Amino acid sequence: MRNTGFTKHYYIMLLPGFIWLLLINIIPMFGIVIAFEDFNPGKGFFHSEWIGLENFEYMFSLNDTAVIFSNTLTIAVMKIAGNLIVPLIFAIMLNELRFAVMKRWIQTVVYLPHFLSWVILSGILLDIFSYTGPVNTLLKLFDIDPVLFFARADLFPFIVVGSDVWKEFGFNTIIYLAALTGINPSLYEAASIDGAARLRRIWHVTLPGLRTTIVLLAVLSLGNVLNAGFDQIFNLYNPMLYSTGDIIDTWVYREGLLNMQYGLATAVGLLKSVISFVLIVVSYALASKFANYRIF
Amino acid sequence: MTKDATIQTRLFDWTLVIVLLLISFLCLLPLWYTLAVSLSEKSAASAGQVWLWPVGFNWNSYKQIMNDSSFFHSFWISIQRVVLGASITMIITTMMAYPLSRSARDFRLRNALMWILVFTLLFNGGLIPWYMTIKALGLYNTIWALVLGGGVPVFNVILIVNYFRNLPKELDEAALVDGAGPWRMLFTLYVPLAVPVLATVTLFTIVYHWNEFFHGLVLTSGEEHYPLQTYIQQLVVVIDTANMTEDQYKRLNELSNQTLNAAKIFIAMIPVLLVYPFLQRFFIHGITLGSVKE
């Protein structure tokens, strides 16, 4: 195509975006040097004392480190599993629904929680699960003593995962529903001529039709195994729940910005970023190899 | 088909309808409950008597909020943030997406720039360096920290790029023959055709800026700069529970002003509930088309 004069206009179009990218996304990447420094904000990046791997050594000597990594991993993996399976089942059920109008209404309703913030939803959850809240009122009907949910470290991960799946399952059906429209209807016809009942058709036609999507989503979620959801946990947890609920991101926030352990917090954050980076690259490589996935 | 089979099908259909309606109901229940609490008598709410219907119906919480100037101040900051954030982000990301949707033959640096973008999606410096950078740029305590502090929403750029790339190439050729330059191509040809994806991304951006609370918390010095979500977060969620015994924690729960908080939470949801239905019809189309590349 003839566009000899166009390139300079392309640069003008890209300029504001790339300046923004440089300032907010890229410059902080160089800030990771803090992880190797005894960082002093007064002295800045360039003049703080270089201490090599000392922050990392200290990090590995801390008990907290093992706890936050394992909490993060546990919560994130449970979330990944829940957010793959529940939307899958829901999408299949919606796909079987024969009333188009009702289907649209249900979709509208179940997508909604995705758009509400964790601040709002945490406020609601703290109320619903409070000592005198509806959940405890319900438990009373079954003669169960009231539970102080947000003092129970053993229950916290399940509340976190459950509420996250509740918030996101609807929205996560979108991708499955899109894949379902790609299944050739004649396969269903053939199956019913062969005498397959509804459940058998789901098993032999719908599920195989979704296989690529399921595998793709599973592979791509690999990059999220260290993302347990800062916004949610930050707004739900309290010190009584640290043993099971404190995750890397919340710990980095507290140590870094509240306790001003800049070097240490940056080191922990960097370890997380590097591991996530490797996992995402691996997952993209797998996805492009097996599902022909391209991000652009 | 035998009679048994039809009965079975009907049974299947109706069970499905009931289960799906129950699940949908479960999605709305917490929101409905919050509304009910906000309209209830204080004492009834703290005694846990409110379920799905207000007990001792009254508007007191809402009247109280009407006189709460800090609530409205934060509300106003959030409105400014959404308007500035959404418009600036949409203009910048759309302008970025167009050159990046050209083929590498048309625009040689395209692939390299795309990889830089993707890299920023995969790797970041983490919280502390980001915070230091914002401070060093002098954005701390300004509305621009909230508007620009999240960085370029790279994923949205990629969605738009992919959508642009899926538009028929013949359009380009026709426009070129008509003598259209890149700016006219973008704004009179691509933008109108990409309404589904642009509406989707606009929705995401509006919702992001409305919902985001953390930047308000760490990038501003205090309440008079908080957007609404940060204000609510401080009010409802943050309780200094360090060194608290279980009993103290229990009492604190009983003391908190549940009905007023519920009313504030409900008001904070309203803008999302308002924009959502208008943009909803676009986003399924927008996401699925943008995320698939030929």
Task: Kindly summarize this structure in a few lines.
The complex is a heterodimer of chains A (296) and B (294). Chain A has helices at 6-30, 44-47, 54-61, 63-96, 100-111, 118-128, 134-141, 156-180, 185-193, 198-220, 230-236, 242-245, 248-258, 262-290, and strands at residues 37-38, 49-50.
Quaternary organisation of the protein chains: heterodimer
Shape of chain A: globular
Architecture per CATH nomenclature, i.e. the level-2 architecture of the largest domain in chain B? Orthogonal Bundle
Q: What is the number of helical segments of chain B per DSSP (H or I, 4+ residues)?
A: 15
Apparent shape of chain B? globular
* Topology, number of strands of chain A: 2
- Summed over residues and divided by their number, the pLDDT of chain B gives a mean of 87
CATH architecture of the domain at 59-244 in chain A: Orthogonal Bundle
Cα radius of gyration of chain B in angstroms: 25 Å
User: Main beta sheet of chain A, described?
Assistant: 2 strands, antiparallel
Strand content of chain A: under 5%
CATH class of the domain at 59-244 in chain A: Mainly Alpha
Please give the CATH class of the largest domain in chain B.
Mainly Alpha
- Overall mean pLDDT of chain A stands at 91
In angstroms, what separates the terminal alpha carbons of chain B? Answer: 42 Å
Most extensive protein-chain contact, per-chain counts: A-B, 106 and 113 residues
Cα-based radius of gyration of chain A, to the nearest Å: 24 Å
GO cellular component, one term (chain B): plasma membrane
Family (chain B): Belongs to the binding-protein-dependent transport system permease family.
Domain ABC transmembrane type-1 (chain B): 75-279
Pfam families (chain B): BPD_transp_1
